[in-house]
């Protein structure tokens, strides 16, 4: 059978799991194997209804008194337990931060290879897979060995399609977890302000890079973003400096954005940054260096000091 890890946060389904299920269903059908799934944490039990029509024969609900919130090693140990007891041919998860993290732990503990961010698979021995590498700038053809095969499915590459069929049969499982599995777990949550436009949804993103110079230097960028109902993003140089939180980072190891307009201020345009904003319809670069790489990607550019240019734009809009 093929085993799919369903990602949820305190009982709320991550929709990227539905894309992964579409992929997993195809893989199961090609090999004539049943598709089964697992949710970790008793609060995932309620997802059975939402997962009806996904072609899942059985939904394993892994419950344990200490599984109160996301804990990557505990989730991985749960998968290992199911690998040992249910002997799946392949284990899949969505290629999210959590999906990749849990399968990486699983792979390390089982001494198995993991193929992350797959977009296509041809089963056999070995599997032939195509996966996204280098922040989306290339597709890699590779072979995947090991038993079971471990892979994650690249987000937003396969549309989620529902199959027909009943709700899955629920199977309760208690994984043998211990202290080691809870060295890392979510212990506190900070809610973002609900009325604030997020980086992912914003139609205008004002991004700041090292050229902003300091945390305080972001004041004019914040002001501009507020005036145009946009959001502020930043480069990794900025998060490394501690000027902004990682949640604001745009790029390969940050958030992917797709605004109508991205105003990149004091950002050089490194490939790892540009993969995060390649969905932007228009890019306006503000940079003192006429040779900055971002200028070759920008639709518009102002060569100048952002500390003069941005306040001038703010004044003009006001
Ligand atoms: P710099 O490259 O230092 O550029 C600063 C720019 O500001 C320059 O072009 C300069 O001309 C301009 N400038 C300076 N002063 C002013 C001023 N007063 N007014 C106007 N312009 C000014 N980076 C990301 O951003 N996101 C990622 O997700 C990411 N992931 C990475 C993953 C890996 C594995 C690696 C190796 C790197 C990653 N990076 C990422 C880092 C990336 O390679 C760059 O180092 C980073 O993007 C540079 O940030 P920057 O453009 O702000 O700084």
Can you offer a commentary on this structure?
This protein is α/β, with parallel strands linked by helices and 318 residues long. 25% of the residues lie in helices and 26% in strands. It has seven helices and 16 strands. It has helices at residues 16-31, 72-86, 97-110, 219-227, 236-241, 271-277, 306-317, and strands at residues 2-5, 8-9, 12-13, 35-40, 56-62, 90-94, 114-122, 127-133, 138-144, 149-153, 169-173, 204-208, 231-234, 261-265, 282-287, 300-303. It has a nine-stranded mixed beta sheet with strand order 9-8-7-10-6-1-4-5-11, sandwiched between helices. A five-stranded parallel beta sheet has the order 13-12-14-15-16. Strands 2-3 form a two-stranded antiparallel ribbon. Strand 7 and strand 8 form a beta hairpin. The chain starts with a strand and ends with a helix. It binds flavin-adenine dinucleotide. Residues 209-211, 235-238, 249-254, 266-268, 270, 272-273, 276, 286-289, 292, 305-307 line the site of flavin-adenine dinucleotide (FAD).
